[in-house]
Write a structure and sequence with these properties.
Blueprint: E1 2-5, H1 9-33, H2 41-69, H3 82-90, H4 111-136, H5 138-144, H6 147-150, H7 154-179, H8 187-194, E2 196-199, H9 201-213
Antiparallel strand pairs: 1-2
Helix pairs in contact: 1-2, 1-7, 4-7
The chain binds protoporphyrin IX containing FE.
Amino acid sequence: MKRVYIYKGFERFWHWTQAALIIFLAFTGFEVHGTFDLLGFEQAARFHRVASWMLIGLIVFAIFWHVVTGEWKQYIPTSKKLIDQVRYYSIGMFKGEKHPTQKTQLRKLNPLQRLVYLSFKLILVPITVISGILYMFHKTIDRNNIVVVQDISLESLAFWHTLGAFLLMVFLVVHVYMTTTGHTPTSNIQAMLTGYEELEDETDQAAVSDNLKSDSKPKKTTL
Ligand code: HEM
């Protein structure tokens, strides 16, 4: 085994801040929704709006970081070993079989993770954020009579926003469970905290050189 630097500083900051903000937004959002009463509607709505601007700011920085470091290439979907990966998570890992794909610095996501995280970034987060922004400015937009959104009712925006929030919570539960399926139950979480992970040596080397030959390699960066 070799200790490899997998997650860079900004990536770890972005991951944990995003997680904290989404949990806080879910907490305040579901209070606004009327699911429970703790802070009071006014306070929950105020906190929700502040946190939503923080999340938007974080997303802007994260997009910039993914583009300039080339890390976005880690999310390019592939069908290679996708079925093997699904089989591993549903049957193989319970039988103690070996992981079908090897994690490396330049290929940190397995085929299933690529697909799930790409959908998270391109579908789930945009549904929630865009419906949230339209929700926030609905009255102003109506007043200014902007044609594009004129016909979208507040009810349908609330529906899409709540659906996005609900799916984000489902994602969170599944995601936390999946983090326990590494070499040890806490190795993936530790890697996202420290940046380092213990990976198999020879296969790692082989996979790295394999990856270096590929056209779509992300830049090796220490950002
Ligand atoms: C940039 C992101 C977001 C924006 C701009 C946003 C904006 C809003 C706004 C304007 C409201 C109406 C309450 C109010 O007037 O303040 C709202 C409600 C709500 N938000 Fe968000 N939000 C965002 C992210 C999230 C996230 C990540 C979650 C959960 C994971 C969430 C869950 C909810 C829920 C459940 C409601 C109640 C919907 C209803 O029943 O009407 N929001 N949000």
